[in-house]
Amino acid sequence: MEHEWVIQLAGQSVNLNTLIMVWLGMAVVLSAAWLSTRNLSVVPGKLQVVGEGFYDICRGITMATAGKRGDGFLYFVGSLFLFIMTANLMGQLPLRLFHIPAGELKAATADINTTSALAICTVLMYFGYGLFKKGPRYFKHYISPDPWYIGLFFLPMNILEDVTRPGSLLVRLYFNILVGEILSGIALGVTPYVLPSFVIFLELFVAVVQAYIFAILSSVYISLLSEDHH
């Protein structure tokens, strides 16, 4: 913990390194959304073109996994993708050169608390959206396949599947970003010019891919658990 800037707030330990990066990431996403949508026109300007490009990517994720039903949770999956991509990329920017009282600024997604919160948001969404679409019938998928006496045999495994889904999301994102941050730090220490450039370029690619994977898996889970025949 000596490498983190931790304060006590209402009896709880708060990691300010991560908190600063989370709020910066949200500010970047909200600012970009506002700038790209404030003067919408039939003949789009450059910012509107960029905004529409990201909208097409996000809608492509939900369309690929749920078809037109994906429009019902497009706002959630799109927000996840944009925030995670921004947070991942910010870890590769030279923010760590700014001096703070303890530790250094790093990607918010290199903190397991952040990835856990994002995974919990996905869980709440697929439970909430599933209940909204199917009502109490949502819980029927725990006793499947039919007939019911065979489905009852699979009940523990179906529950376990729901429990492990968020775990796979948070662990995959956390370790990929954390390892990237460590490799970048080692490269900076070994050779300050050529090697860091190569590693950081590679990590920029990983940052986008990991955001895409998190978003598309979340979309798959929400789609599966809200299908009428599931």
Topology summary:
Elements: E1 6-9, E2 12-15, H1 16-37, H2 46-66, H3 74-90, H4 112-134, H5 148-153, H6 155-190, H7 194-226
Helix pairs in contact: 1-2, 1-3, 2-3, 2-7, 3-7, 4-6, 4-7, 6-7
Describe it:
The chain has 230 residues and is mainly alpha-helical. Helix content is 69%, strand content 3%. The protein is built from 7 helices and 2 strands. The chain has a two-stranded antiparallel ribbon with strand order 1-2. A hairpin with a 2-residue loop joins strand 1 and strand 2 (12-15). Helix 6 (155-190) runs antiparallel to helix 7. The relative contact order is 0.14.
Percent helix = 55-70%
First-last Cα distance: 45 Å
Specify Rg, calculated over alpha carbons: 20 Å
Strand arrangement, major sheet: 1-2
The portion of residues forming beta strands comes to under 5%
Derived structural class? mainly alpha
How many helices in DSSP terms? 7
Order of helices and strands: EEHHHHHHH
> pLDDT under 50 segments (min length 5)?
none
Q: Estimate the mean pLDDT confidence.
A: 83
Shape estimate: globular
Biggest sheet descriptor: 2 strands, antiparallel
E-strand count: 2
